[in-house]
Amino acid sequence: MPAPFDLGDRRNAVLQAMQSRGVDLLVAASAGRHRLDRSDPVVFLTGYRSLGESIFALWQDGRAQLIVSPAFDAERVAQWPGPFDRVATGDLAAACADLPGTAARIATAGFDALPNDLAEALLASLAATQPGEMKAFDGPFFAASRPKSAGEIDRARRATAIAEQGMERLLELARPGMAECDLATELLCDMKALGAEDNFLMLNAAPRNFAVMPSSARRLQPGDILLTEISPSFDGQFTQICRTAFVGEPGRELRRLYDLVIRAMWAGIEAVRPGVPVSAVCAAIDGVLADAGYAEYCHPPHIRRRGHGLGSASIQPGDIALDNETILEENMIFVVHPNQFLPETGYLLCGEPVRVTATGVEVLSQRTAALGAIGS
Amino acid sequence: MRMKSVALLTGNYDWNPALVPPSECDARLAAVRAVVAAHGAHALIVHGDSSEYSALAYLTGFTPKLGPALAFIPPHGRVRLLTAGTEGMLDAARRLTWVEQMRAIGEPAQSIAEELRLLSGGSATLATWGCRTMPRRLHSLLTNAARDCASLLDLEAPLNAILLRRSPVELDLTRAACRCLEAAHRAFSIATLAGAGTRSAAIAAERAAFRAGAQDFRILASARPGGPPLPFFGTADPVVAPVLICMETRFAGCCAEGMATVAAGDNPAALSAEAALQSLLDSARAGVRMSGLAAPHSHPFVQHAACASPGHPANQPVDALEAGGIYTLRAGAAGSGAESAIVSATIAVHRDTTEILWRGTCQ
Asked: What is the ipTM of this complex?
């Protein structure tokens, strides 16, 4: 199996996809939001995370131009490595109108995520200056190169190490009477100090939870079940671990049911290997829960997905769900999380980030999920 | 000011009636409804998401954290909210707003169509606010859903104008936001002057802002001596002097922003920037146009002077100061090499006086 590739290989894969479809010019757009569970076409091709919206224009002959906003980002983009021209501007539509050449077939990617006014202005600019046919190219674009690059894999490992330290810190800091959001913001800063630049940090608690959610001002109480998805980004690559902790000493029933969701998670992880459809991972998790009598809770509204890809470049292979037939490939990275609602306890969370290896799976976390206890 | 977006808003966004009382919410709703009616529209649709939610949060208190949200404002009666996430997340969403009628967005095309039919009564002009920043895919769903039951009227500009005039409650909340800003500024300065790198100092500032009660805090800082303020990506933590910073924070929905220069040393540009800011402050009063503010460019090295309304969705410089407005006055100066500085002050313009809510320094 091939070694993880770099961004140059990825651009070449996209160029091949363009060539096979007769595309002369690809205009990929980023809304500048860099999210855990959304792909960003500009980051995907360049690694550059813009402050505002940005565009990457790629011609079939290999010429390329990165256009970022706002204008004061000029100094940073000028130093960014890569075989392309660079422009920083406060007016993306005008810069788009200045793109050289008159392409006969133009493909776009990422435009649906742009603010509507900007998307319309960019399309109008392209239509005025590149009079060829224009088509959305999002599907073939990301399919051209699904696995993570070598750099992304390394960054996913580092992000996961930070997430695990974040969980240790949570168990140190959390105490009854503390507001969820105060705990979450302390953890946010602690993980930034460890190297994270951002964090999709969901954290909520109640005696019985119906979902994992962003923090509120609710204060932790003895008997609460605390849920958290700790999802730091390291140098642009997100990861995620999912954890559950009890405020006080967890009882036998909670331990028994948490063991069940842990077993379901491992069944899913053990199903991960190259050549297997994503749906098989979800089915393996569902199987354990169904055998324990919870089949009716393996569908919406109780559960929507059993994991997902990790941005911010590409979120391939997508949601870990029964209707996802994407075939797993070496060096795909995603999180496997049963995150199950059980009638006795409410929602329980466990989840680990994994990499598909040549023959199976590598779990990126070192200390996998176990039911935590928060001192009362 | 363009700040880096964040993956998830993590601070305290719960609606607190002790800070934003129902009478304030009612007054905002009445003001918005009056503008909608004056433009001949039957009702209003307001959009927000985690990146731009000024209009939605102003009107409903609701800050969308997980995806888009839409408020449907009838001419009379109850406001309705469509929020991202699942039905199981509605309990958490309800903590963020005074609006009682709320449902998960589910299948967006279907939900939006249902809400539009309810709002329009079959055929009406519906005003929109905050929809220019709506992602294109969602905007298409909205326009398709409206095709059969309503015509859409963009009232972005007249409704944004409401946000420029701050109520006494908003003024108090902005004062609190400025206290968060000052806590962050002080923490950044202390860390920097003690030899910390800009990234470490920025984390100290963020922690201080949150501990002071901020909902959110963002910061840009120079990556090289005197360089433009930039976002933090990666783990580089250079020690930089002078370091130019731009900060933005929120408290109970009210925004404060500030610029300052730390470790300025014997930087003549810093002296010029501060002098230019003082000139702006000396002449800032109700009714004065930006062109009428004392000529800051007469100071050596001054390259930039501007005035903006913090937290306003248009994020554009304003031309004139109005009583009841809150403004950020900014001045920037550049000499040779690393000799550059920025500084700003946040002011509340009253009928007869001007109150300085926060003032940055070049120290």
From this structure: 0.94
